[in-house]
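ok trying this again, last paste got cut off
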Amino acid sequence: MKILRQMIKLKNDNLYYFLIVLVALLPVMIFRDFTPSNELRYLSIADEAIRNNTFFTFYNHGLAYADKPPLYIWVVMLGKWLFGTHHMWFLSLFSLIPAFVIIKVMDSWVAGEMSAELRNASRWMMITCGLFLGLAITLRMDMLMCMFIVLALRVFYRMKENQGNARTNAILFPVYVFLALFSKGPIGILVPLLSITVYLFAVGRIKEFGRYWGWTTWGILLVCCAVWFGAVYAEGGEAYLNNLLFHQTIDRAVDAFHHKAPFYYYLVSVWYSIAPWSLFAISVIILALVRKKGISDLQKLFLSVIVTTFVMLSCISSKLQVYLLPAFPFIVYCAALYIPKLQVNAWLKAMIAVPSAIFILVLPLMVAATVFSEELSQYGEPLFYVAAAVLTISGIVTVYFLYKSENGVLKAVRSLSVGLLLAVFAGGMALPSINHELGYGELCKKAKSVAQEHNVKTISTWGVSRAENIDVYLGQQVNVIDKSDDPSKHVSEGDLLLIRNRDIDKFGNKESWTVGKYAIVLL
């Protein structure tokens, strides 16, 4: 009965945890506007695919977009088909649910080697890693790929431990690997392939490689890829297939045409990517390795994933912080597995105290910024002050738990994490007041209203960044004028021109409307 009660309590703890996180993130999922850089582009690509009736080849205003596999674009297309328009809350679910699955899988994976209290703290630490939390509500395919990578590695470990049905595991493993590939691209297969290889070599079982990467695995992968590439060839022809297989993979890996960065890029970015836990988690791992604390088979696998992912991504020419996402769950849970083996000393406490001190400073710094900076005064919305106050209070409470409470580290982790989520909730409620700074929704809403009122047929933009995809809002193509061009050569009387506020003086006494940092000019 005691074991049953513990199982029920653990199940309820998981339920409460996921409900708290969901509620904390709901305002951001509901009120946030789409960002112009990537999110709006995915929506525009999906709209174009629906118009063209294509499902494996995608175009952005007529130009081939072979950067990403189809899975995530299908999600966006599904949302448009279901609701007739794009909804942030719906699309955010396809980042948040994978994040929840990752945490649930990692939590169950370490159940036999970690106390319930430590697992609870690890869940809070995982969801509040800065970039992990951000990607849990950002419209990108990275979290989807990360979920399938974690699932594939979990099945691999079950196969190694002879757990579950052997035939089912043998099929699930390549299916998850393919879905990771089908979500984002080659990283989806390279992370599990290289990590497992390194791990098997490290534990002296490299001869078992064929057991996991044998005929069944490669056969399923080849069949799935053949169907995919065949559909791409049928829809887009040889040129599109070549773009997908070579230009967007080999060319980006060897000499990137986007996001090129030096080899050491991730050695720098990891510190702010998993903040506020980077100092603590990485210090725990390094300290445990230096002191030669015992390493279980599970920790060896986690370390293999971390090191392999770091080295592999560092060797690839194209680099972004988000590419390192597959390593984040293993960094957090590897550190958590080491905590019971270490004496939590003053140094490790300081690694939590430092971000806590930064949290404490948030409210006074925000007050100073909004009072003395005219540019930042718009963030003086009361709810932003509430969010800042919550961070400051949680920082104070965390420091108290850290130095004054028994088992203070785990309590400190929970208090800082909950404080961060409460701040996200409060700040999310205030997002409508600054959406005009985040995206083009309000600008386009006003532009459509003006266009209808004045019977305008042509809408142009000049100096507005990444404006080509605002057709998602306007329901029509826009004429994007390069900033270096003279806009008068590309517009006619009676057109609407969307510009930045600072350029409005260039258009004399033309009738205009202001929306945030942008303006609408009736020519």
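PB: full thing came through this time. The two ends are 78 Å apart (CA to CA).
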